[in-house]
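User: Run a structure prediction on this.
Assistant: Running it now.
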Amino acid sequence: MIKRLKILVDTFAKITLGVSFAAAFYISVIWGLDAHISVKVLWEVLIVSAVCTIPILMFPVDGEKELSKNGMLLRRIIYFIFVNCVVLGLGWLFGWFYIEKPAMVAFMEFLIIFVYVIVNAVVYISENAEAKNMNKRLEEIKKKTRELKKSDKKNI
């Protein structure tokens, strides 16, 4: 349970950072650098990030049954569709874009894809580094165990 909570908090932080950069870029391009925005945008970014984080619970964590490649791919596709619906739906409700302006919708979709790819890349890189570190530690433990067994045999 604690592992899941750590993953949720870590993922929320990465998504929030990505959405914050995307929002700053979007506001700068669409509304201009001199745009006056309400502080409620900060709360909206946090809400969107939190809602986009929740489905992370559908992915297995350490010790749980691993998914097949097809199962994982299907969950990634479902998650991507979910993120699109959330960001476009809440973005429309929050007034981030006008649905009748295709350029705004297309730019939002571009940013959704960009943030999704970046967040997933960062998660992959950090998980890969953690796995390499764990494998290195396991090798060190195995080496010490072999050395202890050799020294025990010599002492007999």
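The chain is about 80% helix and 0% strand.
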